[in-house]
UniProtKB/TrEMBL annotation, chain A:
Entries under NCBIfam families matching the protein: EboA_domain (NF035938)
Highest taxon of source: Bacteria
UniProt cross-references to InterPro entries, sorted A to Z: EboA_dom
Species for this entry: Algoriphagus pacificus
Record's protein name: EboA domain-containing protein
Automatic annotation (TrEMBL), chain B:
GO molecular function, one term: hydrolase activity
Positions of region (Disordered): 279-303
Origin species: Algoriphagus pacificus
Keywords linked to the UniProt accession: Hydrolase, Metal-binding
Keyword Secreted (UniProt): no
UniProt similarity note: Belongs to the metallo-dependent hydrolases superfamily.
Entry-linked Pfam families: TatD_DNase
Record CDD domains: TatD_DNAse (cd01310)
Protein name: TatD family hydrolase
Length: 300, 303
């Protein structure tokens, strides 16, 4: 369990950012609500403040400095507060003030907060999972977040969030990656993707690609990242098919996947494309680059 | 392209074809009042999930079609008659009334004008006052004239300012008193019965555009989600000045509900482009194989 001591520096950091970025009347309101929540300990006071934060904080970007980003990374590795907005940050601050001494009652309150939250409130909650008290007990809730069809809510769990890689078991992890592929999310924003790669996931992805191809449809190039370490005799023909694709981005992705493999025939494939091999070896061709290009293509 | 607001539509009951047609016809923003679902709910949790969908899924669904979705939160008059249930729903309301994009308490008021309806109407007027939110009043379809007068009397008894109250479902018989007393007068355009577009044109001719609001109240019954743009088109054809059309089919609704602090023209003028690639998922709005329509900056509504 995360102790209060671990949370306090984060609360202090968040408060310093909010004080710097927002108007005085907003931070005064926040201090009043904190007091009220701490003294009354009442759920309803907390719920109302959590909702009404939107009257005092805007969805403006935080524009954190490099020092601030480094600070938060040392406090909570992987937490991407730099991508949050002011309103979201204020809500997470309030969340961290709510008394958490009793695990059962805290979880019960959070359950209600999730069930009655609007789209933006729920996004704020999921993005804050890694710094919640009892974070390790929120796995079922996080999995519930993956079942949504509201993209921004799904993204709050799956993307730019260290929670899944830290706490999910293999089945939850695979469920998330497969749905992210299905929803065409930018996979490079999934944290620690390579550490959690596994054979089962690679097999599911190959099956998924076959289904799509049968329907005359494409798959997003980024998915080959999750197959790379598991290229074998069995799926080599699929990789070869993608390498010979007309689509340059797909070819690059398949070859980058080959570079993650110890399978000799995968290595041989890369050698057939010396220019791309050069980019891979020099570190110019990365999964992030492929993901970015996929995003740009989707929007053009 | 003209811009319209439909400040009363139950889109939860409408299809994506409707959303597409609405956007094409110029509707940029809508307000979905909490109402009943055609048959009475029997559990408070059903209300909770309904309210959650109004601030969650439906908001997202509308956004995919380039329409900004707001809602009002309230216990409707029909279901107020189940008193034990209504008590529980009253406890839920504060949880939702303060949320972003909730522009009023509504639609509340009278249906059969029973004692229970009166009780929960009054409690919700107090809630609106506490939350500093406008009120959307549903006037009864039976005994309308007396019910409308009573709705305003009771609202004044609780100290609400008329400019914070939108009285909906007006007709020729009720409009004069509603306007004279300083309220916003909304008109629901129904395809067959009750108020039609032709009659609406006559009302705007007679009373002018001040504080008059046109809506569709389209729901799960026979109704028309394009009632606002169609009425605007008829007004145009009948020679109503463009400024009056703009006021009755856009500006007045915005002015009335923006008093909540939760509705801002910039929400759609500066809206993110529609990105349907966001939701290519099995149960989602786009099914496999369809080509997403991604609206680029050049397609954005200007001005």
């Amino acid at each position: 369990m995360s102790s209060t001591n671990q949370i306090n520096p984060i609360s202090a950091f968040i408060l310093s950012v909010l004080s710097e970025k927002s108007e005085e009347k907003s931070t005064v309101w926040l201090a009043q609500k904190r007091e009220k929540i701490l003294i009354s300990g009442k759920e309803m006071d907390f719920f109302m403040a959590f909702s009404q934060a939107s009257r005092y904080f805007k969805k403006n970007p935080l524009n954190l400095t490099e020092d601030q980003i480094n600070e938060i990374q040392s406090l909570s590795p992987g937490l991407r507060i730099d991508l949050w907005d002011q309103l979201q940050l204020a809500r997470v601050y309030l969340l961290l003030q709510y008394p958490a001494a009793d695990a059962a009652s805290w979880k019960n309150t959070l359950q209600k907060l999730f069930e009655t939250g609007d789209m933006y409130e729920i996004e704020a909650l999921y993005a804050a999972l890694p710094i919640m008290p009892y974070a390790e007990e929120m796995v079922a809730r996080a999995r519930e977040g993956l079942r949504t069809n509201i993209t921004s809510v799904f993204d709050a769990v799956a993307l730019n969030n260290p929670y899944p890689a830290t706490y999910f078991d293999e089945s939850a992890w695979n469920q998330m990656v497969v749905k992210a592929i299905f929803m065409q999310r930018p996979l490079f924003k999934i944290q620690n993707a390579e550490q959690r790669a596994n054979q089962e996931l690679a097999d599911i992805i190959i099956d998924f690609a076959h289904e799509r191809w049968s329907a005359g449809r494409d798959v997003i190039p980024e998915l080959w990242r999750f197959v790379g370490p598991f290229i074998s005799e069995k799926n080599l023909k699929d990789i070869k098919k993608v390498v010979s694709s007309e689509n340059k981005l797909e070819r690059k992705a398949a070859l980058l996947a080959c570079s993650m493999s110890d399978f000799s025939e995968a290595k041989d494939l890369i050698n057939e494309y010396p220019e791309i091999k050069k980019d891979i070896d020099s570190g110019h061709l990365t999964w992030e680059l492929i993901g970015q290009e996929t995003l740009e293509k989707a929007l053009s | 392209m003209e811009m319209y607001i439909d400040p009363h539509i139950h889109v939860t009951s409408r299809t994506t074809d409707d959303y597409e047609a609405m956007r094409k016809a110029g509707i940029v923003a809508i307000i979905e009042p909490a109402f009943w679902l055609g048959q009475p709910r029997t559990e408070a949790a059903s209300f909770k999930d309904y309210f959650s969908s109004l601030v969650g899924w439906e908001r997202f669904r509308a956004k995919q079609f380039g329409i900004v979705h707001y809602c009002t939160i309230g216990l409707n008059s029909k279901e107020a008659n189940n008193e034990p249930l209504a008590e529980q729903v009253m406890e839920l309301l504060p949880l939702y009334a303060g949320k972003q994009g909730v522009v009023a308490i509504g639609e509340i008021g009278y249906d059969d004008q029973t004692a229970a309806e009166d009780k929960f109407y009054r409690l919700q007027l107090e809630l609106a006052k506490d939350m500093d939110l406008p009120v959307m009043i549903h006037t009864p379809h039976r005994d309308k004239k007396k019910g409308t007068t009573k709705s305003m009397d009771v609202s004044e008894e609780h100290g609400l300012a008329p400019n914070m109250v939108i009285v909906d479902h007006n007709n020729e018989e009720t409009v004069k008193e509603v306007l004279d007393r300083g309220y916003w007068a909304a008109f629901t355009i129904y395809p067959h019965t009750k108020m039609g577009s032709e009659r609406m044109v006559e009302i705007v001719k007679q009373y002018g555009p001040e504080r008059i609001i046109v809506d569709s109240a389209a729901d799960w019954g026979i109704s028309d989600p394009l009632a606002v743009p169609k009425t605007a088109a008829l007004m145009r054809k009948m020679g109503i000045p463009e400024e009056h059309i703009r006021m009755t089919c856009y500006q007045n609704a915005l002015a009335a509900y923006a008093q909540s602090g939760q509705m801002d023209e910039m929400d759609w003028l500066k809206a993110e482009p529609i990105d349907q690639t966001k939701k290519m998922s099995g149960n989602s709005v786009l099914r496999g194989g369809q080509v997403p329509r991604v609206e680029g900056p050049s397609d954005r509504v200007e001005n």
